[in-house]
Amino acid sequence: MATVRDIASNLGVSAATVSRSLNNAPDVSAKLKKKVITEARRMGYVATRRRQRNGTIGMMFVNETSGPMFSGYDATIWSGVARGASASGYAVTTFDMRQRREGESHTGMLSRLHLDGLLIRDDHQTRQLVEEIAAAGIPSVVIADRFEREDVNFVCCNSFTPTLQAIEHLLHMGHRRIAICHNVLSDTDHRDRIAAYDRAMADAGLETDPALRFAIRADVEGGGAALCRFLSLPDPPTAIFFTDPPATVGALRRAMELDVRVPEDLSIVGVDDEDLRKMTHPVYTAVCQNANELGYQAARWLCRSLSDTASPGENTERIALQIEAILEINKTTGAPPATPVRVSPTGVRISVSQ
């Protein structure tokens, strides 16, 4: 018996397009609907009874930094997800891949758990799993990662441009020794920020010193440790870019403990996912992205595609949305000091010439 995928393969369109054409969706042209229906009849396609929706979607965390005890970035994403699902009349629950039974398919597991679709937070180690889920035809959207595959839906932030602007801002103020402290875990956001840092330095004709690049577990303690590491170098930086909010806060706290004045002695640029920058003193210059909106847009699209409540002209075949981050210049960046600050590993200020 012919299937939706068989019809799609013959016509060179997606299975979602065929499904929406057969269900007379308003965002599919009359010409394409006619073409799909004609091919379906030719192939002897018989529609199966539409699966009953349960009204619940799952939020699956398969990235190392998240899970049942998530906070910060993922908590803000979760808030947006709950808002988007609620607006569409759906409930949302966390979902653990360990609930999958031995030999059970992805589709079978979702059916057993009464879930209509999935929102996914992945990292570089679990991208293959995401692709397997998409290939199985499970309605799903990845949050905060980017894919080239046409069958993988995603919503992410583009922080490349504002990061480039942030490093250029430091360069224009006269900084040349600019360090970067990034997450030891790799994902789209961090790869974009590192690439933008490298681009800005290269465009300025500056070679990046390996000593000015440090990977950490991006928490408050890691940010403080990174600041001490950089400032204990024989030729310390006059500015540091932190690619994560908790690390930025940790660096600012450690600078205060060491009596390193920001920005008079050291400029700091960070990243913010919500309003954390407004809670520090001084308010830090930040690459700002809206994590709540990421969750909202992903949940809204998934729920609307499941319930066929899309507005005329709205694309529910695929979502590949990149939300632009922005650079907000605040109080932690200034001109480089005449003499860079140097601190011993024990926290004692020392002369840079020693």
Commentary on this structure:
With 354 residues, the protein is an alpha/beta fold. It folds into 3 domains: 4-43, 434 Repressor (Amino-terminal Domain) (Orthogonal Bundle), CATH 1.10.260; 56-152 and 293-324, Response regulator (Rossmann fold); 159-289 and 328-350, Rossmann fold (3-Layer(aba) Sandwich), CATH 3.40.50.2300. The protein is built from 11 helices and 14 strands. A 6-stranded parallel beta sheet has the order 2-1-3-4-5-11, with helices on both faces. The chain has a 6-stranded mixed beta sheet with strand order 7-6-8-9-10-12, sandwiched between helices. Strands 13-14 form a two-stranded antiparallel sheet. A hairpin with a 5-residue loop joins strand 13 (342-343) and strand 14. It is elongated, with a radius of gyration of 24 Å. The relative contact order is 0.15.
Helix-strand blueprint:
Elements: H1 4-11, H2 15-22, H3 30-43, E1 56-61, H4 73-87, E2 91-95, H5 106-112, E3 117-121, H6 127-135, E4 140-143, E5 154-158, H7 160-172, E6 178-183, H8 188-203, E7 213-216, H9 220-231, E8 239-242, H10 245-257, E9 267-272, E10 285-288, H11 291-307, E11 320-324, E12 326-328, E13 342-343, E14 349-350
Parallel strand pairs: 1-2, 1-3, 3-4, 4-5, 5-11, 6-7, 6-8, 8-9, 9-10
Antiparallel strand pairs: 10-12, 13-14
Helix pairs in contact: 1-2, 1-3, 2-3, 4-11, 7-8, 9-10
Keywords: DNA-binding, Repressor, Transcription, Transcription regulation
GO molecular function: DNA-binding transcription factor activity; transcription cis-regulatory region binding
Domain HTH lacI-type: 2-56
